[in-house]
Fold this protein.
Amino acid sequence: MAVNLSAPDPASLLAVPGVELGFAAAGIRKANRRDLMLMRLAPGAVVAGVFTQNSFAAAPVQICRAHLAASATCRALVVNAGNANCGTGEAGLRNARRTCDAVARLLDCAPAEVLPFSTGVILEHLPVERIEQALPACIGTLGPDRWGDAAEAIMTTDTVSKGASCRVSVGGREVTVTGIAKGVGMLQPDMATMLAFVATDADVAPAILGHLAKEVADGSFNRVTVDGDTSTNDSFVLIATGQTPGASVSAIDSEAYVALRDAVLRVAVSLAQSIARDGEGATKFITVEVQGAREEGEALRVARSIANSPLVKTAFFASDPNLGRLLMAVGNAGIADLDVGRVNLWLGDVQVIEQGGRAAAYGEEDGARVMRADEITVHVHLGRGVAATTVWTCDFSYDYVKINAEYRT
Amino acid sequence: MAVNLSAPDPASLLAVPGVELGFAAAGIRKANRRDLMLMRLAPGAVVAGVFTQNSFAAAPVQICRAHLAASATCRALVVNAGNANCGTGEAGLRNARRTCDAVARLLDCAPAEVLPFSTGVILEHLPVERIEQALPACIGTLGPDRWGDAAEAIMTTDTVSKGASCRVSVGGREVTVTGIAKGVGMLQPDMATMLAFVATDADVAPAILGHLAKEVADGSFNRVTVDGDTSTNDSFVLIATGQTPGASVSAIDSEAYVALRDAVLRVAVSLAQSIARDGEGATKFITVEVQGAREEGEALRVARSIANSPLVKTAFFASDPNLGRLLMAVGNAGIADLDVGRVNLWLGDVQVIEQGGRAAAYGEEDGARVMRADEITVHVHLGRGVAATTVWTCDFSYDYVKINAEYRT
């Protein structure tokens, strides 16, 4: 069902010096399916993370936060699919720690240098013994060119694996940025949900990496929505191995920072868009651009009000240029003093709302033409200021209901 | 598709002294369908209204607000189905005023004593001539016992008409409270959307009536949700004809006020629940009760996060006791300092979440038993305070997508 998205050619996912990847079938939820992934980092790698805002943060998310606070260094990430280890109380925290302990023993590092991630069913206990048993086999497969395999091993109900890669010059040295992600939006928290791992061999100071991770998340993963449901396990981790020492980033907004940021953002946006393209039941990929807001948060509220409206999304599914629903969604964004007479809205290249009402030149057939495409842009200008944002989403089809109603049957 | 809901027996909708109702087929959107309703009020009636918070408030909503501000008295309400007169700019305001002018001429009152309401497609101009032409016939049918016909005339995609009635003693005199509503939730703004009219023959001072209308709306219509989309035309109007003079309400929270409020609330809650029961594609009626919140707004955020989550709603449709989705929705309500270890949750009489995790005694079969019913209560206790609220909603089925994707085809 993914919209104009296929799995990345494994050869296109460039190795990042200092990163090795391995995988195994641990039988966590299904037999004979790769569901365990290990990422080993060379000594000296630094890591920053951005995690879910859901109050019920899963046990591995809590342990990640604790380990990132306790240790300046990171030697490994361990990821399981099939079980979210969320809503599992103290036992869940113990199981996440036990996973880290097992990895630390095998890789000869401290447990706090291991970050755990889980994705899958909520409220069931993690079968940690199966992970412990599968770890040696997982380590046996470690290699620098396994990004494609790693992307497959972290999938849950994703229909295609997701990865992206690019090269960029930082401080006069060429470095690589490669990332993988899983998730079909925020719309399936019981196979929860979005995980993304992006690595570079640039040399980035830890405080700067944290700033970069936040900035990239805001410009990529935080601008994807499928139904507004935020999962309990969302995690984005940015890794800098520092294996190309001249490629140093030592100040925010320096030339090197900007170059690296743009490269990481390019990879992250590609991954984020992949998530919307593979949204459950998606038949269309929708880009919502909002301009003319007073500040970016306001633009984001309008964009999300459009992107999350089931009425707008079913209209896209039906290829129905149902203008009233777009107008309703803009008006429903909670901007108290919005002057609707200054609002203009385009569907692709066709203006449908002009100064708050139906555009004089608009003809239904123009809207229908745009709606028939499988990639559609909605462009709103609020006429209030200069702030802007873009959000990516998908439509809302019968298959969304089918997938989510029948998932456990 | 409505869940345990049938049209009210016309005889059960009690006449309210001072209120007459009429209807006609004006051909606004479809031929030979009653789509125009007029409510004539005896001199001395006072009226209060609560209207949509959507920035794109429809032209009739804007005129209602202006007329309520300009005139202390109200002699008529005129309602058309089939066209929302929203997003129609100056022409829309002119057409709404023209409708009021026509009614005022025929009933010999001031235009500001007429309140206009429209429901239907957004962004199309109102065929005001057809309304003008049909008004004499509409007036010819005026009578006190036509509440059932009136309820039918304001329907759009409602599958059954909605009305409720009760008697109550106010100041030692028995009065009647009768109301009608249309809408299938907030989920179809292009047939937009919720209209509710409730009348009583009690004698209520205008300032007190405004307070009563707000209090009743907060306890009834503002606690229904289908998908979180707020329409451009939502209106709730409360009418007190004062035809039973001894039944006077002259102070907020007086005994007479409380008696009348409880009666009006009973009618309004019945109408509000009817809206959720007739939600588009609904197969189940869901009650979400939240207790133990610090303040009511917090309880409402949690209740709406559950009631609006497409994942929770598809699980109800599938009768799947998918606990993780409920936990996700509670955690997603934006309560920054929520201690998840104090959260308990019941599905019907079955505790599924205990201190933030899966209840020890919970068995999947217990949850499945509750989920098979067509009326289900979710009860959440946050363990933070004493505030509480209740929200009513419906599930999310294939037919929701079908109705909203195929509506205009």
Q: What stands out?
A: The two ends of chain B are 20 Å apart (CA to CA). Residues 50 and 60 of chain B are 13 Å apart (CA to CA).
